User: Which sequence fits this backbone?
């Protein structure tokens, strides 16, 4: 079976600078598979998700490489077709449920609008589907929630609504960008379990962005470690936890709290390791410039 | 219960505002030098005549007695008699008010349309030359006051390219079937589009002069607020669903971005109504503002008071309408 999403040699840069924010990124995900993207803040994890979904900030654009979604090269599509293709096959679970819902709209249209406006469902069918989805994300009173405004719901409820909305059109690919970071710890676990449950039930390919290697070990089958917009290691989860190949990955793993011993003092990532990986990124830049 | 309290509180503040305006105007116009009686009598009138008329209008009493008499009159619906026109104040004011309201509303409609269109074009083409051009236009619109726009428009469309009328409210040669003073509304209701068109040709320039600065303010603020909204997560999320840029702007960003602009439009609309005073004068438009200037020139104290009270009432009503619309559009307030 060929991969559902393939990212090939993808580079993105700020307009007018030759400094890249994504550096020849390559990875692929099969149907039903979850890929973890880890790396420190600013490593470019969200940027990869945005590039795939076509929502890069206006100052940043893709300068080379391809994104194949279900075999279709997104860069080769006309913008309107690309938008529709992404809307129909992919979805985003955002980081902050407090800001990701439109405050002046009720919940129902925020779940059903993609179905009605983009996929041409009838309002009645979309409503039935929305109720079904709210049941799936374990919301007790779906009728009432559909008629509520976002400010009337708790953070956990809103994230459930956003997950329901993401899975509404049976997406083949879901990008979850730190979907639990903004929630409190008890809710985090429930939401994580919920995402996992829906992903398995629908055999969705998923990119799971996180800081937390502990979460990766529970949710993902494979992971990519990013530094400075470059993937320094692609690995399967069992291999990675058995022993990361890259020094930076090892340092990252050592800096992650262990569930067996949460109070053990953590090793900060070693300066020397950081310098080495930064030098590696710069070297790859030089090579890239000479090659291109 | 909460709503009732809010309404009562609102009515109380409105009354305080009105009484405050009445008191200030009443005393200020009596402190300013100038004698209304001297203005109405021919030069060389006898001392006796002056004294008699002064007593007739009650101007020989102390200022506090005068205020008391005026205030009790007002509570009985009697705003006194105009000294220069020798008619009861309130019917005079009410006969002119519709002309001013129509002008102000027309100006507001123009301002919202121009300002709104510019703001939307600006965000649609943000960070391009189009946006820069709009910023420049906003700057020009804001830095020239309405009465100068009036003169510019008179030169452009009254003199160089005479397509609009520069004076009056309607052509005097026309037969007017109107029973109300709301000519524009009534001409539409009677399907008399010939009259309607003539009215618009008269209103266009004064309304545009009033509208341009407001359009620039609306354009600037709404564009800014739209641009900020476009970065918010829910807007980005709606993009991933497959929506076009136009749809994202109009149905995700606009409903939220419009709220701060709405409050501002309310405040600016009261300024615009203040602006009608000079603009109506420049275009000889027979509205309340034009009457206000005559009243001031003639030191027609009762008339000035009547006009100010009506303007003040209008302003409080506009504020009320704005607050109600805001609450209606903002779900967070609607349920509070
Ligand atoms: N709008 C923008 N304009 C220019 N540079 C940007 C913009 N947004 C992000 N960047 C840069 O792109 C890089 C990658 O950012 P990104 O948001 O992908 O990081 P991240 O790995 O998701 O970090 P975090 O864990 O904090 O979310 C960062 O170095 C950041 O400075
Ligand atoms: Mg991020």
Assistant:
């Amino acid at each position: 079976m060929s991969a559902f999403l393939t990212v090939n040699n993808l580079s993105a840069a700020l307009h007018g600078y030759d400094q890249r924010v994504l550096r020849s990124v390559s990875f692929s995900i099969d149907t039903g598979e979850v890929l973890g993207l880890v790396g420190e803040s600013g490593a470019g994890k969200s940027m990869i998700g945005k590039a795939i979904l076509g929502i890069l900030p206006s100052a940043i654009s893709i300068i080379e490489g391809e994104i194949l979604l279900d075999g279709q090269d997104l860069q080769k599509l006309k913008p309107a077709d690309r938008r529709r293709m992404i809307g129909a096959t992919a979805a985003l679970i955002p980081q902050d449920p407090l800001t990701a819902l439109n405050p002046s709209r009720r919940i129902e249209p925020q779940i059903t609008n993609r179905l009605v406006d983009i996929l041409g469902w009838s309002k009645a069918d979309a409503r039935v589907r929305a109720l079904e989805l709210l049941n799936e994300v374990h919301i007790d009173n779906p009728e009432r929630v559909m008629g509520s405004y976002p400010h009337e719901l708790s953070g956990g409820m809103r994230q459930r609504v956003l997950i329901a909305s993401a899975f509404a059109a049976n997406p083949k690919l879901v990008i979850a960008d730190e979907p639990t970071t903004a929630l409190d710890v008890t809710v985090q676990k429930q939401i994580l379990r919920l995402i996992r449950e829906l992903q398995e039930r629908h055999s969705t390919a998923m990119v799971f962005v996180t800081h937390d290697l502990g979460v990766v070990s529970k949710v993902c089958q494979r992971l990519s470690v990013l530094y400075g917009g470059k993937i320094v290691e692609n690995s399967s989860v069992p291999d990675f936890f058995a022993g990361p190949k890259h020094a930076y990955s090892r340092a990252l793993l050592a800096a992650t709290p262990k569930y067996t011993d949460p109070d053990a003092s953590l090793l900060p990532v070693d300066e020397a390791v950081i310098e080495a990986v930064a030098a590696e990124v710069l070297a790859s830049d030089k090579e890239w410039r000479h090659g291109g | 219960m909460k709503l009732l309290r809010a309404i009562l509180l609102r009515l109380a503040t409105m009354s305080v505002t009105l009484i405050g305006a009445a008191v200030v105007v009443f005393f200020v116009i009596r402190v300013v030098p100038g004698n209304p009686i001297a203005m109405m009598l021919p030069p060389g009138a006898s001392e006796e005549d002056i004294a008699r008329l002064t007593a007739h209008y009650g101007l020989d009493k102390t200022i506090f007695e005068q205020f008391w008499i005026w205030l009790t009159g007002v509570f009985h619906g009697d705003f006194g008699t105009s000294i220069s026109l020798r008619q009861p104040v309130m019917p005079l004011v009410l006969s002119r008010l519709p002309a001013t309201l129509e002008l102000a509303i027309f100006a507001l409609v123009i301002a919202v349309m121009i300002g709104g269109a510019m703001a939307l074009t600006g965000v649609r083409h943000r960070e391009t030359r189009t946006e820069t051009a709009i910023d420049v236009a906003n700057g020009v619109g804001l830095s020239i006051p309405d009465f100068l726009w009036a003169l510019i428009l008179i030169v452009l469309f009254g003199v160089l390219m005479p397509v609009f009328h520069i004076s009056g409210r309607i052509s005097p040669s026309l037969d007017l079937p109107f029973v109300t003073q709301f000519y524009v509304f009534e001409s539409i209701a009677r399907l008399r589009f010939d009259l309607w068109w003539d009215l618009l040709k008269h209103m266009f320039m004064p309304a545009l002069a009033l509208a341009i600065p407001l359009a620039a303010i609306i354009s600037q603020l709404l564009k800014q607020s739209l641009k900020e909204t476009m970065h918010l997560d829910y807007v980005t999320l709606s993009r991933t669903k497959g929506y076009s840029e136009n749809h994202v702007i109009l149905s995700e960003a606009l409903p939220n971005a419009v709220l701060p602009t709405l409050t501002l439009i309310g405040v600016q609309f009261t300024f615009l109504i203040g602006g009608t005073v000079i603009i109506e004068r420049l275009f000889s438009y027979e509205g309340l503002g034009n009457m206000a200037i005559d009243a001031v020139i003639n030191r027609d104290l009762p008339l000035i008071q009547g006009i100010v009270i009506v303007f003040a009432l209008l302003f409080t009503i506009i504020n009320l309408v704005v607050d109600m619309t805001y609450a209606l559009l903002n779900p967070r307030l609607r349920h509070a």
Chain B has 14 helices and no strands. Chain B has a mean pLDDT of 91. Residues 193-230 of chain B form the longest helix (38 residues). Residues 89-334 of chain B form a domain with the MetI-like fold fold (CATH 1.10.3720.10).
